[in-house]
Amino acid sequence: MKSNKYIYGFCLFAAAVFSSCSKDFLTLYPEGNLNEGVFYKSDADYQQALAGAYTSLRDIANNAFWMDEMRSDNATYDYYAKDRGNAARENISTFLDEATNGVTQVRYQAAYTGINRINALLDHLAANTTMSDSLKNQITGEAKALRGHYYFDLVRNFGGVPLYLHETLGYGDAFLPRATADEVYGQVISDLKDAGNLLAPSSFADGQTGRMNKGVVLTELAAVYMQRKDYASALPLLQDVTKMGYTLLTSFGSIFDPANELASKNKEVIFDVQYQSGTTGQSSAFIYRFIPNMPSTKVLLGVSFNVNGYGGWNVPTGNLMAIFEPGDARFDASVGVVEGTIDDKQDFVPTKVVSAVNYTAPAGVTAKYFCKKFYFPPYPNTNQNTDQNWTLYRYGDVLLMLADCLNETGAPGDALPYLNQVRIRAFGNTNHNITVTGQAGLRTAIALERRRELAFENKRWQDLIRTGQAIPVMTAYGVTAKQTYPYMLPQSFTVTQDRLLYPIPQHEIELNSKLTQNSGY
C-alpha cells in the first residue's frame, strides 16, 4: 500500500451533488478544506462521500483496456517508431511488463483509494444515529457493492492483496500483509451479498446505470462465482437478473452511442463508468486512444489534435477479425478502417473512415484498422473531452454468462435460447442460430460468441483465464504476432502460469515491507 498520507489524505472528501438521478451524482465540486472533524455531519455529507468513492471507477477504466483487452488476442497496438515512450504500455500486450510498470500501478492504487474512502464512510455511518434507516441502507448497500467491486478487480489481477476493512487512521493501519486470494474472494462475496440484501433493482431512471443497484450486484456476484468456477451459485443470480427489466437494444452499435446513455433510452446497460465532458475533470478520451497515430484528428473527429504517440491502442488483430461471420452486424460496429497516406515525415495522414466489411485497401492507400465501438463523431471542439461512458456490465453479457452457467451445470439445451438471443440481434434473423447441444461443443461456441459480442469491452483476458485457455491461446497467438510484426522482441509472449497475474507494483513493496511479490516478477 501507499503511505498513510497517500491513502488517507486524498481520499474522503470529494464533494459531489447527489440531488438527482443524473450524471450530476458523480460530479465533484471543490468545497474548501474539509476534514473528518467538520465532515460527516449531515445526510448530504454522507451522500457526497459516497459519490467520491465512485471516482476510482474512472481512474481504473482509463487504464484497464491495456491490461484486460490488449493482454489478449483481441487487440494490439499501432507501433510508432518516432516515439518509444510508450514501451511500458506495449510490454503489457506482449507479456514483457515488470513490477515498475506505471499502468498496473495506477490501477492498483486507484482501487485502494476507492476502498479507503468506502471504509471511512462505513465506519462513520455505523456511528450515525440520526439518519433514516432507508437512506442508511441505501448508502451502506452502494458502499459495500463498490468495495466488493474494487477488491474483485484487485484479486483477479494481482492475486491475494491486503484486506483493509476499516478507515486508515495511523501508521499501523496503513501497512498490512497480503491476504490469500481465497480470503479476498470471501470478502468480495460477503460485501456483494450484503449489498444485494440492501439495494433495490434499477428503476431505469436516467443516471441509474452509473450507480450500484441490485441488478449490478447480482451480475457482479455471478461473475465472481464464475471466476471461481462455481457455476451452480452463479446460475440463479443471473436468472434473477433476466427478470429485472433489462433487454437487448435492437441495434448493436447503438449500445455505445453517448446519445443513448440515459437509462430510459438504454435498458441493456446494467452498470457503466460515468463520464461528463466539460471543465470538471470528468471527461473521457477513449476514442483519442483508439484511433491510429496521426498528426491531426480533424478528418476523423472534427477537431484537430495530434495523437502521435497518444493513440494507436486497442487495434483489432487479424485473429479477432477472422472470427466474424458474413452478415454479423457486430463486425461493422466494432471494427473500422482509416484510409490515408504516409507523408515525407513518416506520419500517417488520414483521408477518410470506411467500413471494414469485405475491405481491401486500394492501390497506393495505407489502411489502418481501429476499434470503432467507441467512435461517434463529430466531437466537441475541445480535445480529449468526451461524454463517452465505459460499460462494465450489460444484458448481452448476462445472457452469455447465463448460457455458460447452464452449459457447465449440465443443461446445454437450456443454454441455447440465451446464446441465440444475442445472435438473432447480431444477424437480424434466426438463420444463424447455434444448434449444437453437446457440452464441449457448446462451451466452444459460447466462448467464441463472447469474443464477438464483447470485443474491446475488457472481457477477453479474464475469459481466457477462467476457461483455462490463456496459456495455449496466447502462446499460439504470440508465434503469429512475432511473425507478423517484426518490431516485437523474440522474448515476447513467454506466457506462463506466473503471467496470469500482474505484479504487485514495486512502489507499493518499497513502501510496505510486509508485501511480497508475485512469482515470476
Strand content: 5-15%
Number of helices: 20
Shape: globular
Structural class label: mainly alpha
Strand order of the largest sheet: 5-4-6
**What is the top-level CATH class of the largest domain?**
Mainly Alpha
How are helices and strands ordered from N to C?
Answer: HHHEHHHHHHHEHHEHHEEEEHHHHHH
Give a brief description.
The chain is mainly α and 521 residues long. It has 20 helices and seven strands.
SSE order and pairing:
Elements: H1 4-9, H2 43-54, H3 56-68, E1 75-76, H4 87-93, H5 102-126, H6 133-158, H7 171-174, H8 181-198, H9 214-227, H10 231-241, E2 269-273, H11 286-290, H12 298-301, E3 315-316, H13 318-321, H14 329-334, E4 335-342, E5 348-355, E6 366-371, E7 390-394, H15 395-408, H16 412-427, H17 439-453, H18 460-466, H19 470-484, H20 506-511
